[in-house]
Amino acid sequence: MFSSLRSRLLASFAIVISVVLVTSAVTLLLFVARSNLAARLELRSTAARLLQRPDLELNRPGLFDELVARVDENIGMRTLIVGRDGAVLADSRASQFPELRPVRLIPVDPLKEVFTIRDVDGKEWLYTGRRVDSGVALLILQARQPFRQLIGSPISAELLRSLAQAGTVALVLSLLLAILISRSVASPLSKISDAARQLADGKQITLRPEGPAEVRLLGEVFNEMSARVLASQQSQRDFVANVSHELKTPLTSVQGFAQAILDGTANTPESQRDAAQVIFDESGRMQRMVFDLLDLAKLDAGTADLQMQPVKLDLLLQAVVERFSPQSKQANVLLTFSSGDLPTVIGDGDRLSQVFNNLVDNAIKHTPPNGQVQLTAEVDSERVAVSVRDTGAGIPVDELPRIFERFYQIDKSRRGGPAHGSGLGLAIANQIVLAHHGEMVARSASGKGSEFLVYLPFSPQPGEALKSSS
User: Fold this and answer.
1) Residues 188 and 217 grouped into a single domain
2) What is the DSSP letter of 119?
3) CB-hemisphere CA count at 13 Å for 10?
4) Whether residues 72 and 19 fall in one domain
């Protein structure tokens, strides 16, 4: 019945208003019953007129009975005269009602004070009055009405009628307000729901956030989610296309040379050896690609086998430089290394070597003869910053955001020809750095060379020191 947000808002507003009205009505009735408002008002009004009359002979005790009878006949209310000690000296209706208990409080201002007294049977009476110079006091009394009579009294009926009218108006206004609020909330939510259905169908949807702040925030988060989902879908499509493309060339070579051996085209020992060598090389290339993909999948899932232990980063980087010195000399590229006093970091030494091997190898390959590759390391705040800078052609600015995507490669002039890798090296290196709670940043300008920065924390994240292969 109340499955939609709009119906629940309407119902909640109606329930709240109804509860407030019922609570107000019950509170008002209890107040009327407790205070005997009508009786008190009538008692005050009568006392204000009566007690200001100058003909009240309260200084003649012998005429007290006659005086209270005359006042009772005039105003129609029980009238008393009490002494200084509160004892009743005269009672206009002593023969009709039980005897009153001694009066303990003598009012002095009939326009403000109304008190309660009980008779010997426990019935309550409201009274007010005035004390005179002789010490006695003239009191007028009115019986306190039972609750049922109060509910049916004209003043109670008028109060309840006014409350019902005000409550009806408040209920109508609250329902109208609830409709407006529900529309402002439900309408944007409905648009988000429709957009989610379209997103599930593969359509690109961008919402214009509207409605309350929380709903606008939901719309902004939906837009972010939509962009990420579409990017993920595109990445999956690119991944399948790239894997197919990267495997197509070696498989074609393997199939072609295998067929040459089978059909006798390669009919000499030398040609057969060449064919077998091509098959061996291409199968090794496919094997490396498969292993790289498995590594990348494990790093993405956080299940990679990382042997975390203290690593002297300066020694590790020096070993990288020594490993690539022959390659840099052969390419006529100057490879230099400089570092300050580096702290020990916690990490997997083999994996970190893989990162810097990839960066230095790429830098040498993309640097023309007589160029330079600089490997530097220094302390940056609470991290170690390792920089690999080359003087090559650089990376176009519009391609930098995609440089760490798997299989992504720059054009052939930047790649260095078809013998270059599959485009997984930087993606794997970036994931290794992230697994060490670090960060990798690429900076470049076309024609001005490139710089890759690797930031590694001094100490591991909580629990990282305990992480090992499992």
Assistant:
1) no
2) B
3) 14
4) no
Q: How many C-beta atoms surround the C-beta of residue 459 within 10 A?
A: 13
Task: Give strand ranges (E) for 391-430.
Answer: none
Task: Tell me, yes or no, if the pTM score tops 0.70.
Answer: no
Pairing of strands 137-143, 124-131: antiparallel
- Give the chain's end-to-end CA distance (angstroms, integer): 53
Residues 74 and 170 in one domain: no
Q: Mutual orientation of helices 313-330 and 349-365 as an angle, nearest 10°? A: 30
Which single residue is written with the structure tokens 């006798």? 264
**CA distances (Å), origin 329, targets 224, 333, 354, 387, 448:** 48, 6, 21, 21, 22
Domain match, 169 and 100 both:
no
Position of tokens 């220094």?
378
- Kindly report the backbone phi and psi dihedral angles of residue 157, in degrees, each rounded to the nearest multiple of 5, phi listed first: -60, -40
E strand map for 20-118? 78-82, 88-91, 115-118
Say how many CA atoms lie within 13 Å of 301 toward its Cβ: 9
Distances (CA, A) of 232 to 8, 226, 228: 37, 10, 6
Range of the domain at 73: 37-144
Please tell me the total count of domains within the chain: 4
Instruction: Name the 3-class secondary structure at 213.
Output: helix
Residues 143/123, Cβ–Cβ less than 8 Å: yes
Q: Are residues 340 and 435 in the same domain?
A: yes
CATH number at residue 75: 3.30.450
Q: Print pLDDT tens along the chain (470 aa).
A: 556 666 777 777 778 878 887 887 777 766 666 556 667 777 777 777 776 665 566 666 677 888 888 888 888 888 888 887 778 888 888 888 888 877 665 555 555 677 778 888 878 888 887 766 566 777 878 777 666 655 556 666 777 778 788 878 887 887 787 777 777 777 777 788 888 888 777 777 777 777 777 777 888 888 888 888 877 777 777 777 777 767 787 888 888 888 888 888 888 888 888 889 988 988 887 887 788 778 777 777 777 778 889 999 999 999 999 999 999 999 999 999 998 888 888 999 988 999 999 999 999 999 999 999 999 999 887 889 999 999 988 888 888 888 887 776 665 444 433 445 567 888 888 989 998 999 999 998 777 889 999 999 986 544 444 343 33
**The amino acid at 161:** R
| Cα–Cα separations (whole angstroms), residue 240 to 245, 298, 410 | 9, 18, 19
Cβ atoms of 326 and 360 closer than 8 Å: no
Is 174 a domain residue? Answer: yes
Amino acid (1-letter code) at residue 285? R
**Are 188 and 237 contained in the same domain?**
no
- Token pair, residue 177, equals 């307000």
Tokens representing 201? 């169908």
